[in-house]
Each structure stands twice: as C-alpha cells, then as structure tokens.
Amino acid sequence: MAKSKGSSKKQQKRGIDFKKIKRKMGRKLPPPKNTTNTEIKSKAIVLPEQSVASEKAGLAVSKKGLTLKELLQHTSHHNAKVRKDALMGMKDLFLKYPEELKLHRYAVIEKLRERISDDDKTVRENLYQLLKSVIFPGCKEDNQGPVISLMMAYIFNAMTHLAIDVRLMAFKFFDLAVQYHPPSFFSYAEKILQNYEDILWKNQFYLEDKGKLKNALAGLVRCLVLLPSSKEVNLLEKNVHEQKILHAFEPDVPIVSAEYSVIIKKLKDIVPVLVNCFQDFLPIVHDSLDAQSFDCMLSILRSIDLAVSFFIHRILQGHPESQPLDQSFSSVLLKKLLSVFPLCPMHRLSGKDDDRYVILNIAITEIFMHLSEWICPPADLFEKFLAFVEYVLLEKSCSYVRSGKTVREKQISTLIPFIPKLVSRVLGNWKHRLLLAFTKTFQDCSPESSVKLACLAAIEEMIISRKDLLCTDVSDSELFDYQITWIRELPTLLVLLGDKHPSSSQVVLHLLLHLGQHSLLYDEMQCLLKVFYSTYQDEGNICYGPFLRLARDSQELSICCLYYFSQLDSNLLKSIASCCLSHELDSFMLFRIIEVLHSAYKAGHIQISDHISFFITLVSRFKVFPENIFPATESNMKTSNRGTFKSLTNVVCSCLSQMGDNSIVFVILEKVILEQISLKPPLDNSCAMLRMLIALDTKPTRLSERSICSLSDVLSAYLIDVAHCVPEDGDEGAGSIHEQTRCYYLLPCFFLFDRSHKLLNLVLNVMGSSINGSSASLLSGYHIRYAKGNSSRINATVSVLLWMQRDAKVQQILYSFKEEIDHISRSICSLQSSEEINVPIEERHIIKHAIDRLRSLTSSLRR
C-alpha cells in the first residue's frame, strides 16, 4: 500500500511536454509562433515620359489611338473582328492624314494584299471599300502600275481558291484594278481570261450566287470594252486618254499584234462558255426575270457582243492570221443565240419585266448586227430582226408605251446607230418601212434627248458618209423626200435647243456645215433659220435668238454654214445684221461675220444691193458709246467701243473696194448713204458713211449735182457739230489728242472738197446764211445736232474755217471763195451789232472773240 502511494507522487511532480489546447468549432486558428512574415511593403516609383500615350505623341493615329504600324499588324490577327476593325481604322487614319498613305503606300499594299483571300466575308468587303474609296483615289496622282502589280499575284491566287465566295470576290478586286489602271488587263489578259473561263464553266453556282456572278461579269465587260471594235474606233486609245485624265496614269504597256493574237485565242474559247451560261438562265426567263438574273444575262450578252465586235475589227483591219470567225463558228454562235429570239414574245410582255425583256432583245440584236457583217443570215431570220427594230422605233407594242422616258430613250438610242446599215442592206418595202419609222422617231423625240443625238449621227451617215444610200432606186422619189424632211428639221431643232443645250446645238451645227459642204442646204431653210439669229416684233423691238448666247465656236459654225446657201435671203441678212449691232456680240465674231458674208458675195451667193444694204445697216445703226467725243475720261476709254467702230468702218470700206466696178457700186451706195445721213445720225455714224463715199469716189467727184446740193446742207451742219464737240484749247498732250480726233472727223469732208469745189462753195454759202440764226436757211428736215444757240454756232463756224486754212489742199481752194468767207464775216458782225436780236452779254463776248479770230483768216486770204 505504501509503495503505490509513492509512485503516484512521482508522476505528479514530472513536467508536461506538449500541452493540448482545446479549440472551439468555427474559430480561426492562430498562426504558429515560429512563422516568417513574407509581406512586402513598397511605394510606387514615378518615372517621367514613360507612358504609352506619350510614346505616340506627334504620330498619326486612328480614332482608337492606333498607329499605322499597329493597324497593319492587326490585319493579320486571328480574330476576324480585329482584322475588320483594323481596316476601318486605316480608313479613318488615311482620311485624316492623307500624307501617311503617300509615304507608305507600297508597305500598306504589301500588307493588305494578304486579305484578298481572307476567309471572312466582311473583311474582304471592307478591304474592297478601303481600296476603292481611299487608297486608289489617294494614289491617283502617282503611277499606279507598281501598286497594281503588287496585288496581281494575290488576286490570281484568290481566283483559284477553294471557297467559291473568295474566287468571285477576286474578280471584283481585279475589276477595281482595271478601273484605275486599264493597261493591267493587257498585261495579264491571257491569265485573267482563263480564270473567267474556269469560273463560268463551273456553272453549279449560277442560281445561288447571281449577285457575285454579276460582279464578275461586270469586270469582264470592263476589260472587253478596252478592245477596239468593229466600228473602227479604237476604244483602247479613247479609254486610255479618258483614264489618263481621270486617274493620271501612263499607258506603260504597249499593245502589239502578238498580244491581240493571245486575246483572240482566249476569247474564242470563252465565247461558247458565255453562250452556255446564258442558256442556263433561260428557264428563269420563262417564269420571272428578277433583277440579278437580268443583270447577269445582260453582262453575258454584252461580253459576247464586245468579243464578236473585236473579232470583226481584226478581220476588217486585215489580220488574217488572227481570224477567229470561220463560218462554222459564226453559224453555231448565231444559231444558239438567236434560236431564243425574241426572249419573250412582245404580245406576252407585261408588268415590270417589260423593259428588261426589251433590253435583252436589243442586246441580241446588236450581236446579230455585228455577226451579219461577216456572214449572211437567212432571210426569214433577218426579217425577224427588222420587224423588232420597227416595233421599237414605232412603239407598236404596248410595252414600249408603258416604258419610262429614260428607259425608252436608252432602248431606242441603242438601235438607231444600226439604221444606216440596215437601210443599205434592204430593198423595196422594208427600206420604206425603216425610213418611215426612223423619221417618226426623229421628229417625235425631245430635242435634248440622247435619241435625237443618235438620229443626227445616223442622218449624217446616211446622207454624207453613204451618199448612194437613198438612191438605190432612182425611180422612187419618196426616198429623196426623207432626206429633205430631215434637213428641214434642223433649223427648228436649233431654235428649240436654244442656249441651254450647247453640246447638242454644236452637233446640229456641225451637221449643217457638213451638209453645206456637200451642197445639201436648201434656200427654203433660211426662213426658219433667221429665228435662230433674231426677229422683229410688231412693236419694232428685236427678239434675239439663241445665237448670241452660244459659245464662240458654235457661233463660228453657224456663220460658216451661211456661206453654203446658194442665195442668201435679204431677210436673213437683216436678222444677222441685228445680231451684229448687239453689244453682246464679241468684236471678233463681228468681223468674222463680215468676212464670211463677203466671201459668200464673191462666190455669187449674195446680191450686190443686199450686200451694200448690210454694210450700210452696220455703219449707220451701230451705237457708239459714249456718244460725246469729249471729254474722254479714263472710265469712258475703258468701256468705249469707238475703237471697234473705227475698225468696222475700215473693214467695210475695204470690202466695198473689192466688190467690183467702183463706179457701179458708188451709184448704188450714193443714194442710200444720202438717205441715211439725212436722218441726223450721231457724228461717228455720219463720219463712217462719209468715209464709205470717199472710199469709192474719185477726183473729180462721182457725185451727181443733186447729191452735191443735198450733201452741202448735211456737211455744213456736220462740220459745225464736229467743231462744237471737239475743243480747240488744252495743254500739249490734250491738244495732240484733239488734233488727231479733228483730223479723223474732218478728213472725209476735206477729201470731198478737194474733189468737188462746188461742194465747198455750197457749204460756205449755207454756213453764211445760217449765221443770222434763221433755221429755215438750213435744209428742211435736217438741223444741227449739237451746236445750239447763235454763239455756239458762230464759234464753231469760225473754228471750221480756221481748220480749213490749216489743211494745205483746202487752203488753196479757199482762195477762190474769198467772197463767201467775207459774207460769213459780215453776217457775224451784223449779228453782233444788231439790236433787233436779243443776244446776252456773254454770247456777245463769244461772238466778238470769234470775229477777232476770223479777221486773221480773211487778212491772210487777202495777202
């Protein structure tokens, strides 16, 4: 018992090594006492100029802040949305910073061309829009050949892609390249035509992807349009010229005959494929012709037509080694295409499909017309097309009546160019039917329409280019009547076009000029043509036609046409003279009109009386402004047409001297000028008519006694007006100008005095009798125009006498008329001393000064 108690005590005294701590449920355990604290505390360190935004400062960035380099990298991203956003970002960047495109265009193209075969449709479409709207227009000032060549390998790679969408889109990219650089077609013609053949041969996708097929076919049409056609018009050169203007490219690829041979070979393979493709659409035609199917079929027909036209062109140009159209090939092509013509019988056309069927039938007709130049079609087939053409022109089908104006014009204007060829190939009844339909179309269409222009071109071809076209049957006068009808419509057409359609007016004028050069202008047309220039209304006002408002080149054409009328009518000359008197007419055209009409007179197309009347009308009615000769201010000098009128006078005088026998011309001229100069015209017009007289007069004068008597009264008043309007005083500079002006207006009178002393005697007598102020002393109906009042008239009379003394020839004549001058001096002195006439003091002082001046003249004559 005692041992067990001791052992329990020892156990109680021993220590506890590990104390067990009881924990409650849900409480977090405290960390161990020997754990190491791994928490690190730090402060941010700010380093200036190290942010991403600051790195892009000054760089061109998109709206999302991406640079061009970053955008180009994103175009290769695996996510299609990122690639699309990169293309849109590049569009924004290039529009905002166009210089970026010019600096990096080659690098951009090298990166973007990879997306031509992109699997995502939206990426390809965005790439197409980027190239079309931004990149190609932005590079138009540079040579686009290198830019296009960087893309071509990738475009051809896409054309062989497994995905049909990618292949069709590749043709759209090529079409865009040809738009901006047409020579690219000829550089890759063989390869591109082979790809077109491959894509069209696999026709399983036609009905499913007609929209994409339409784009591919539109590209083919664009390429074939560049080829020369059978109309012997080099469309390649025309398109190259137009594209050079629009896109500033250089035609760096010369087109040689060897390249044409390659194109011909490929086209001969592709045409049957196109025909088969067209036939695959025929089941759709019989049901309902939707827009996409119509576009595809029309592009196919246009491609065939362009290819056939190119074949014919090469044959007509004499390239037998490249003739693709053998008889079997042409016959098979004609048979396949025309077996379905017309696509829909015209009596079954209805609704919105009417115009589409008509357009397709017209396209087939074009192919037929080109093929018929090489092979002779069967008569029944030929008549089928003739009937169709007649229906289109005469609107015999209700479908054409329901067609819109624009659509109808496009349909008809497509067929009009074939009318001359058809008319030349048919005889008898069909010739009349076609000409009747054509004439009705020409008369009914609006003046400014494309149909009218097409008709004008056809008329020129039928009348001028093919002179014997309407004369195959001499006994049939109706054929010649069509020609007269067309030509007589032209003056009315000019008036209807007015000045609002200058290009159309120029076409009509060119046709009129060509007709005149072939002696096909009828004198009856002048009555209608004068409305084109001007007409007189009942009130006497002039109504000007469109002639004055046309451009100078059109005015020149219209004037040149006048030369070819066999006899110009006086009414037409009067109408033209009214235009010459208008201030709206350019001075160059005024002198050009005189030149042409004078040439027509020399050719016997104008009567001498009408020609002289035309000249006198110009000279007598030309309005010179300002009318007052002095004072001549600087503003008046700038706006004055006095210089033009002086040149006109010189030209008229020169023409008069070339009209034939001067004595006969003078007799006609003398009477008319005296009638006109008696109507008190302004000084400039009177001076011009006097110059016309002396241009044909001789010494001694050819004036009759009656004319001398009439002219004496006119000249006395004319001289007094000249002296009144041209001042005698002034400084040295002004005096020289005054002296030149006086000489211009006085010399015609001095010439007449030198040639007829009697005329000078009568003029001095009239001046002397007019000093007393009696207006009855002057010729009845003619009065002094400017010098009013006794003092003005007396002072002007003395000035005239002094000017006569200064002229050497007239001074010698004055010695014979001392009594007349003394009579003038006594009349002036009598007026001064007279108390019966109420003369103001100021006028008496002027008269006294005139007497003092006159005394020096009389004293010199006595010596």
What can you see in these coordinates?
- With 863 residues, the protein is an all-alpha fold.
- About 5% of the residues have low confidence.
- β1 and β2 form a beta hairpin.
- α6 packs parallel to α8 and α24 packs parallel to α26.
- It has 41 helices and 2 strands.
- Strands 1-2 form a two-stranded antiparallel ribbon.
Label this structure with key terms.
863 residues, mainly alpha, two-stranded antiparallel sheet, 2 strands
How do the helices and strands line up, and which of them pair or pack?
Elements: H1 2-13, H2 52-55, H3 68-74, H4 80-96, H5 98-112, H6 121-138, H7 145-159, H8 164-180, H9 183-187, H10 189-201, H11 210-225, H12 235-247, H13 257-280, H14 282-287, H15 291-316, H16 327-338, H17 354-371, H18 379-394, H19 398-402, H20 405-415, H21 419-425, H22 429-444, H23 450-465, H24 477-497, H25 502-517, H26 526-533, E1 534-536, E2 542-544, H27 552-562, H28 570-580, H29 587-602, H30 608-621, H31 634-639, H32 642-656, H33 662-677, H34 683-696, H35 705-725, H36 732-755, H37 757-769, H38 790-806, H39 808-814, H40 818-833, H41 841-862
Helix pairs in contact: 3-4, 4-5, 4-6, 5-7, 6-8, 7-8, 8-11, 10-13, 11-15, 13-15, 15-17, 17-20, 18-22, 20-23, 21-22, 22-24, 23-25, 24-25, 24-26, 25-27, 26-28, 27-29, 28-30, 29-32, 30-33, 30-34, 32-34, 33-34, 33-35, 34-36, 35-36, 35-37, 35-38, 36-37, 37-40, 38-41, 40-41
Q: What is the spatial order of strands in the main beta sheet? A: 1-2
Q: What level of helicity do the residues show?
A: 55-70%
* Separate helix tally: 41
Beginning-to-end CA distance, first to last residue: 203 Å
What is the tally of beta strands? 2
Biased composition (Basic residues): 1-13
Domain TEX10-like TPR repeats: 485-768
InterPro entries: ARM-like (IPR011989), ARM-type_fold (IPR016024), Ipi1_N (IPR024679), TPR_TEX10 (IPR057949)
Protein name: Pre-rRNA-processing protein Ipi1 N-terminal domain-containing protein
